[in-house]
Each structure stands twice: as structure tokens, then as C-alpha cells.
Amino acid sequence: MGLSVNTNIAAMNAYRNLATTNNQMSKSLERLSSGFRINRAADDAAGLAISEGLRSQIGGLTQAVRNTQDGTSVVQTAEGALSESTSILQRMRDLSVQASNSGSLNTTATGAIQKEIGQLKQELDRIASTTTFNGTKLLDGNFAKAFQVGANAGETIAVNIGSAGKGMDSTGLGVNGVDVTAVGAYTVGNAGAGKVSTVAATGAANATVTITAAGTDTFSGAATGITPYDNLAGSITFGGKTFDLSSVDYSTIVPSGTPATDGAAALAKLNTAAKAALGLTTDPFLAASSTTLTFKVADAISGFTGAGGIALNAAGTTNPSSQEISNATATFTAATGASNAITAIDNAITSVSSARADLGAKQNRFEHTINNLNTTIENTTASESRIRDTDMASEMTKFTRTQVLTQAGTAMLAQANQSTQSILKLLG
Description:
Shape: rod-shaped
Number of domains: 3
Mean pLDDT: 80
Order of helices and strands: HHHEEEEEEHEEHEEHEHHH
Strand order of the largest sheet: 5-6-10-9
Low-confidence stretches: 188-192, 299-318
Number of helices: 9
């Protein structure tokens, strides 16, 4: 290669290498000072896209943990209030049992018990109406919310407290009408309520119990479906066994929208419970008309026969024994307000306990969700770090190398710039 003054190839080469080294050292300084391997898309385009997606997940998961913790707080608030509601219902039950002891209580004492029950019902209503979380009522029967417990759409846990339009107040729990001083619904002598008539067995006729619905209630074919069955109270004694009319649970019947269908389902429930309690093999209850329910047994007692009813003895004599007449006689005993109250309160306690159990299960689920989210956050953060963060030891090694190369390059550039001085000797 010839010697020239205008073009110093050696200097240009040294400058190019020095510029490259300076650029590398600048990037190393940026990575070491920021802690990130990727500071701009040009550093690693694919890595940037992946890491940004991971960052979105981490941010969403972190917020989901806070959301789930809020869900736990909501559940704890509701369950704490229901715990006190349970205590109130237990006290109401104790008072109802006390009021049932009519042998030692007069009307004044029963009235005093009812006053306390009235106050307790008001407190149930107050708890249901004032238990809130961030301004949202929890126990009014309208709380049906979803908590976002994941980073992506649709990752939710639903919490329902009570059911639509049926809160945890005295009305929703079915104890608003509890009155230990009253006579039970559908019993003889209860003004404005349904009537019950009984027919004793004789040598020629079978015993029956006829219950007449009150007001507009109907047992079949008309407007109210299950309601009159829910209101049945009192007990029927037959064949030496007793069946409590209020003990039947109709809550599992899903309303069909057709009253006759609902009434038939309720009648089936009533017959199933009566057969189990009285040891019968045939359905004893018949909805004789839309407003009348009749208890009449056929072939129910061993030794008695007869289609459509019970003949008082197998021989068909007209002079049965008093024991046979007693066994074949269905008798009705009216329920008192206190005994009805015990049944209603027991159902309310079951409802509240079920709601509390559901809330407890949701709280446990939330806690497991939080544990899972924290584990996922940790693993996702580690993945994002491997892509985005600087390996400080490796980067420091690179920086040291580029620093040495920069110093060497600077020295060589100076030497290259001086190399053309030798041409002056040729000119001299």
C-alpha cells in the first residue's frame, strides 16, 4: 500500500473500532445504571414484547390479590353480622320454648315474652338493613356480586348472600309473624283463619279431618300454589302415632309458574311426610276441592280392610271395640303460637346457618386464591426478570472489556494520526 496524506486508512480503521467500542460501553453503562437489559425496543424487540405481556400479567395479578382480599373482608363482615343474627334467633327460640310451657304461664307472662321477641325481630331487621361494605348492603337479599380474582377477563368468584328479594331480616327468614300469644294458623277457633273439622270413627263410618283454607288460599287448582301448605299447623294423631303438619319442608319445591302443578307437588310432599310419620302405605291427604284438604286413610291399620276407608274390623261387625275405634279415629290438635314459633325459628336458624356456612366456604376459597395468586406473581416476575433485567456480573465483565478497548483504541488512533509524519522525511 502506498503512502498518502489525504487518506489515512489506519486512522479511519482505528476510529471506526473506537466508535463501536464507545457505543458498546455506552450501552453497558446504561444497563448497569438502570438495571435493565432492555431499555428500548431496539435492545431486544421480541424480548420487549414478551416482557411487556408478562408485566401486564404481574400488574393484573397484584391487583387481583387486593380484590380477593376485599372479597374476604366483605364475607367476614357479612358472616360476623349473621353470627349475631344467629344469637338473636337462638334467644327467640328459647323464649318460644318458655312460652310453650302454658301450664305455668298466664297471659301476662306470655305477653311479656312476646314483647322481648318483638324487640329481637326489630334488631334482626336493623342488622339486615345496616350491615354494609363500602356503602353496599350485604344482607338485604340483593347482594349478588362477582369479585375479579385473576388478571384476565372472566376470572371471577361470585358471592350471593341470601336470595333475590329474600334478605336476612325477620321477613326474609320467616319469623316476622312469630307471636307466642296467638293460636296457630289453620286451627279451630282462629278468627279469620281456616277451619278444621274432625269426624270420629264409629262402627259404620271412617274418621276424617277436613282442613278449610283461609281467605283466598287454595290447596289445588287456583292462585296461590304452595303458600297454604306452608301455613299448615297443628298435629294429627292416628293409629297411636302423631304427625306434625308444620314439620314438612316445602322449600325444595321449585315454583313452576303453574299453581296447580305447585299445589300437586306440595301435596305429594305432605303425603310423603305423613306416611313416614304415621307408618302408612297409602296417601292419607286428598285435596278434595280447591279450598279443602282432607285426611282419610284406607287400609292403613293392620287387620282393618275396606275400599275407600277403614272398616273397623276384619269381620265387618258393627260393634267394634273401643280400642279399634280409637285406632281408627284421626284427631286434630291445634297448634299454639309458641309451637309454631319454634318451627319457624328453627327454619330461620337453618337458613342463617346455611348462609354462614356458604360464606365460610367462600372465605376459605378466597384465602386459597390469594395463595395461588402470590405464587403465580412470584413465578411470573421471575420470568419477566430473566428477560428484562441485567445480569450485573456479566454486564460488568463486558463493561471492563469495552473500557480497556476504548483506552487501547484511543491510543491506537493517536498512533495512526502520527503515522503520516514519516512522509515529511521523504519530502525533506
